[in-house]
Amino acid sequence: MRLCVIWTLLAIISTAHGSPLIDATKDQTVTISNTHPLIFYHGRWDSSPGTWWADSGLKLNVQDLSALTLNLGSHTTSPLASVGVSVDNSPFYQVNVSEGANVIPLSAPSSPDFEGEKSGSTLVRINVEGWQNNRINLESITLNKGAKLLPYERSKLAFQFIGDSLSAGQYLPHGVNQAWPFLTGEFFGAEHNINAQPGATLSDIPSYGNVHGVSFEFFRTEDTGYYYTTDHNYTTPWNFARDVPPTHVVVHIGANDASQNVTDTGFFQVYDNFLTRLRTLYPTQPVFVFTPWGWPQPDGPNSYYYETVYPEIVKARHDIGDRNVFLVNTTGWVTYEDVFPGNIHPSVAGHIKIAGLFEKWLENWGLKQV
């Protein structure tokens, strides 16, 4: 009893002098609920909340950050999902996460330049990289003691990209983070959502393992991987009010329709209907319609599809007074040197090339970086 009293008095005296012998709060952390209003979610999240579609993720603006942990629930892809992480607009680096507590390194392993607590605010951006195995189920976020969330100031520019494997980053080591839509969005300092599904047609037909086409799935929360899950084997309508309204819409699709023998007339009709429906969401935004860059061949010219249809699609919009739809002619953008020989999809260098060409096209059109 006497010893306890002595220790209590010493603690009181030490505290009065600003140096407690025992700081009960020394190891405390800050836990952020997944419903916190200052978490900036982007892309498609279901109610769990969990991600669908490549590029979906979150942004955090944090005061006095020195440690960050994502606490993920049971709907997270097993054994892991790969996410891209950027701190203060650094290049993205890959982190593998799984169900449970995941400490997120605040710098790339190859350049550990984030040491200790950083005064001021730190911007952390996290997104899922894969078009499959891309689900992270956020339960909460743990920050270091003294850290607090600040409002995130979103960009004045926002891209909505819509496509298939040629936009999703299929076969790339870091998935969508190395794909031309992601690179283009980053170049312009824009927010970006990328709804692109490998193997999918625009037509709502089965194709290469996809049970629906993009003309259906784009309007759902889930990507077509839902069909193969056991915990979420259904789709739900996406509430577009949850999106940052895009300032620019880019569509590059049709390769799989051609592979599934959709006729020129059929493709024209489904594309025209799709644009009509998009206009109910994005009534005035410029829409950029990509022509195919084709399938490069080792000993001959690229093979193309729907060559005359894409100009007709744009003309049809112009004919009804919608002149804010633009044809992006990508002929010659991709050669055999720009693709993986085994699957004829753009390589990492190929995606960089495509992004650079589109960025130049947009600059000539009048778009400026922010």
UniProtKB/TrEMBL annotation:
Residues 1-18 form the signal peptide. The keyword Cytoplasm does not apply. Residues 161-351 form the SGNH hydrolase-type esterase domain. The keyword Transmembrane does not apply. Coiled coil: none annotated. Gene3D superfamilies: Galactose-binding domain-like, SGNH hydrolase. Keywords: Signal. Transmembrane segments: none annotated. InterPro entries: PCW_deacetylase/CE, SGNH_hydro, SGNH_hydro_sf. PANTHER family: ESTERASE, SGNH HYDROLASE-TYPE, GDSL-LIKE LIPASE/ACYLHYDROLASE DOMAIN PROTEIN (AFU_ORTHOLOGUE AFUA_2G00620). This is SGNH hydrolase-type esterase domain-containing protein. It comes from Punctularia strigosozonata (strain HHB-11173) (White-rot fungus).
